[in-house]
Amino acid sequence: MRNLDFTPLYRSAIGFDRLFNQMEKSAANNNAGYPPYNIEQQDENHYRITMAVAGFGEEQLDITQQQNKLIVRGTREAKDDASRQYLYQGIAERDFERKFQLADYVKVIGAEMEHGLLHIDLEREIPEAEQPRKIAINGTRLLESE
After folding, report:
1. Signal peptide position in this chain (predicted)?
2. Are strands 61-66 and 69-74 parallel, antiparallel or unpaired?
3. Residues 105 and 65 in one domain
């Protein structure tokens, strides 16, 4: 049972249809398992995505942030492997494109390769105007959040 049907939830969850559509789209992703990755929350506003990209060099990887979407592409050079005869080929040698949906105010702050792992560091930076603030009761002054 790999396919989830969110239809019953549409009746009772108002305004979440975009979320359910994204979940259905990501469940239908054909390349869902390649390359494997981890998403780590380092603290309240810092995250790290680690992808296993063994066999790819830095020049073969492309990282793009476009609005609230992070796209990581790996492109291998076409090789003529007619001379090779594999008895077993367990190492994937294919191009990939992995997309991550980012929350508002999350931006990429850096990326590095280490031992075949691509580390992408993210930071959530909420603008001052969007941060919570305390309102005084029976008063007109605004108190900054503590």
Report:
1. none
2. antiparallel
3. yes
| CB 25 within 8 Å of CB 4 | no
The pair of three-digit structure tokens given for residue 20, joined into one six-digit string: 């359910």
Taking alpha carbons only, the member of 61, 38, 62, 33 closest to residue 50 is 38
Host domain of residue 134 = 34-79+90-143
Q: For 60-101, how does the pLDDT look when each residue is reduced to its tens digit (9 = 90+)?
A: 999 999 988 999 999 987 766 677 888 888 877 789 999 999
Domain count, the chain: 2
Q: Is residue 125 domain-resident?
A: yes
Contact between residue 108 and residue 121 where contact means Cβ atoms under 8 Å apart: yes
Contacts for 146 with CB less than 8 Å, ≥ 6 apart: 134
Q: Is 118 exposed, middle or buried (0-12, 13-18, 19+ CB in 10 A)?
A: buried
Quick one: 59 and 101 in the same domain? yes
